[in-house]
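Input C-alpha cells:
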C-alpha cells in the first residue's frame, strides 16, 4: 500500500493512515459533496433553516402568548408576515430599490 500522507519525522507527530477502501470512500464522498445538485439542495435547506431560526429567535414562535389554537396560528401567521417584510426591506436595501423613508 502506498503512503498517501507522508509525514516528517519528529517527536510530536500524529499520523493518520487510510487503507484503500477508506480512501475510495473518501473520494466518492468528495465527488458527492461537489455535485451541483447536492450544492443546490444544501443552499435551499440553508435558506429555510435561516428563516426558521429568525422566526424562533426574533419573533418568539416557540413561545405562544395564547392558549387556544386559533390565536396561536394567528400569532404564527403575523410572525411570518413580519419576517417576510423584514426580508423584503433588507433585499431592497441590498440591491438599491427605492424605499419609502420618513423624511
Amino acid at each position: 500500500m502506498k503512503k498517501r500522507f507522508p509525514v516528517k519525522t519528529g517527536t510530536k507527530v500524529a499520523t493518520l493512515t487510510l487503507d484503500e477502501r477508506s480512501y475510495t470512500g473518501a473520494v466518492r464522498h468528495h465527488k458527492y459533496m461537489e455535485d451541483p445538485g447536492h450544492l443546490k439542495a444544501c443552499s435551499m435547506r440553508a435558506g429555510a433553516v435561516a428563516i426558521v431560526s429568525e422566526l424562533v429567535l426574533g419573533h418568539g414562535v416557540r413561545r405562544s402568548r395564547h392558549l387556544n389554537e386559533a390565536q396561536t396560528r394567528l400569532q404564527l401567521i403575523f410572525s411570518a408576515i413580519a419576517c417576510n417584510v423584514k426580508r423584503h426591506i433588507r433585499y431592497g436595501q441590498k440591491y438599491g430599490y427605492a424605499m419609502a423613508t420618513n423624511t
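Residues 20-95 form one domain. Residues 51 and 87 are 9 Å apart (CA to CA).
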